[in-house]
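As a warm-up, study this chain.
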Amino acid sequence: MYDIDKITQLLGGAETLGKAVRSPLELSTMVRDGLPGGVLASLAAHLAPDALRIVEFIFKNRGSASTMPSFMIHGRFSTEQSNRIYRVAATLAHATDTLGSLAAAKTWLTSRHAFFDAAPLDRLETENGHENVQAALGCLDHGIAV
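Now compare it with the structure written out below.
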């Protein structure tokens, strides 16, 4: 379900993360300690033209995207923001595998679905919502309609 190589690639790889990530535990520690600012630019590049929506999701309740602090480039994100970035990257990696292309995954992630009564992206804010989105992708993996 969680392909560390694909997730770290979406986050900019070793160059952006500062080292090669070899295990889920290593990535979890990086998320807890705060991901480097450059990961958002990498993730946003994969999500164009929906990048602004992703940025707004990451900074939800923290001001508008136009007032984001400069730590995006050189500093670190908070644990909460890093967790949101991780959830988007993990879900995008899973959806790409499930749906066969990054384009299909982006559309699925940002489009409203009756199952969620929202876009899957809107459900990634909480751990429970993330689990529900991953479960829906798991159903799709096995040919079960959601």
